[in-house]
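Shift notes (night). Ran Winged helix-turn-helix transcriptional regulator while the centrifuge was going.
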Amino acid sequence: MVTTQVESLFGGDPYHADCPTRRILDRIGDRWTVLVVGILGNGDARFSELRRRIEGISQKMLTQTLRGLERDGLVRRTVHPEVPVRVEYALTDAGRTLLGPLRALQQWSIEHLGDVSAAQAAYDRAD
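Came back to this:
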């Protein structure tokens, strides 16, 4: 059976350059996305809290990450009409489905930190 481009796109094949699944993988595989989703997995958070808890992220990168996650339907932005205005971010139902896979990756990185560090050191010594 021959797969048409439309079938490929809707069937999802991230190995094809034009497939939308590749953009989704880019989003959820981004280091800042992993950290933002991890924090929001514990509940709603304000921008300032996210920035404080994610060491090394710039204001610009956090803004871009949150906007991308909101556009993709993974994060919901709520503006509370108070003085001063309060904005909170929360995971959507779709965003919450990422928690399991991302926590598994986080756990894997913790469990294999020693092995990876040793491999890096051995590789660097060989150069």
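The two ends are 48 Å apart (CA to CA). The chain has one domain: 32-126.
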